[in-house]
Amino acid sequence: HTDPEYAEMTEQILSEIHSDQVDLEGGRISSECYILISSANSNVPSHFDPEHNMLFQIHGTKEITIGKFKDLETERAEAERYYGGGHRNINDMPHNAQTFHMGPGDGVHIPPQDPHAIKNGPEYSISLSTSFYTKRSAEVVDVYAMNSRLRRLHLSPKAPGESATSDRLKAG
pTM for the whole thing? Predict the structure, then answer.
């Protein structure tokens, strides 16, 4: 995504993906694109990512299970742990999950903060991951990072979305 031709391809892909949700979140502010090559029968443990992700399958098959955290308290704790310097992997599988069986030509949207896990099929897998931040998803990252710092000071900060004013101050 840093090579000019590759960046142009990333922009071309994302320009074809329009969502009212992206507009509601203040528009897309940054993007990246990765080619993912993985071994047959390999697994990606349950984890979450801070950005929106459009995952497209090119070769081989995979199952991706996408869900939610079991409750808001767990989401806050996991996000603050990660944005405070921890690992993005989580111990639990996603709750209220849906599994998508992907083959060449299939794609799936993974919203920011949504736990997901991946299991590749019997062949090697090639996927294209196009991820992007919206103004709001970037702000949520900043709020969780600041909340992590504030909790280390034994304070009880508001979660993202509880106060627009608080969110703007923490993101600043």
Answer: 0.87
